[in-house]
Amino acid sequence: MASNPQDRITNRLALYQRQISPHSSQTMAARDPITCHCLNTLSGTPAANLPVTLTLLSGPTKSGASFRATTNADGRVANWTPVGTTEETVPAILAGLDTAETKTNWSVRFEVGPWYEAQGIESFWPEVEVKFTVKGRGREGEEGWRHYHVPVLLGPWNYSTYRGS
């Protein structure tokens, strides 16, 4: 274990970088066009088994469609399950848009309060919600298709996010 603060910081940053880097074993076809990834900054490990909800907030079709998932052992969500009566998938919603310039607004919500509580940790955040805009349509490999990845670095008192790749 690193003995000085600088070494500990360097080691933790290296751990985060390894977690953020995409895994080459996952093919692009095996994931939805919107994915997310969550790292627990308190422990420096992936936020495994964290409930996540993806919701279509606005757009030309099916506003309000929701999808659920739970992060895997690497803290990632690659595929979403429809909630309620909708059977439409995230790829189908985006494939059905009119043009490659069409925009839809989405929300991804991480249920962090109960997740930290189950670990005996009090969290300032009951949930963390990230809203973002998706531009494009089509199926993977077609013109206009884009992948949107939403990484979140999460702690019981802080979080940050950015547009991933």
Give the topology.
Layout: H1 5-20, E1 34-40, E2 45-46, E3 51-58, E4 66-70, E5 76-77, E6 81-82, H2 90-95, E7 103-110, H3 112-117, E8 128-135, E9 148-154, E10 159-161
Parallel strand pairs: 1-9
Antiparallel strand pairs: 1-2, 1-5, 3-4, 3-7, 4-6, 7-8, 9-10
Structure description:
There is one protein chain. With 165 residues, the chain is an alpha+beta fold. It has a single domain, classed as Transthyretin/hydroxyisourate hydrolase domain (Immunoglobulin-like, Sandwich), CATH 2.60.40. 17% of the residues lie in helices and 32% in strands. The protein has three helices and ten strands; from the N terminus they run αββββββαβαβββ. The strands form two sheets. Strands 1, 2, 5, 9 and 10 form a five-stranded mixed sheet that branches. A five-stranded antiparallel sheet has the order 6-4-3-7-8, with no helix packed on it. Strand 1 (34-40) and strand 2 form a beta hairpin. The longest helix has 16 residues, at 5-20. It is globular. The two termini are 32 Å apart. The model is unreliable at 22-28 (pLDDT under 50). It is an enzyme of class 3 (hydrolase). Residues 34-164 form the Transthyretin/hydroxyisourate hydrolase domain.
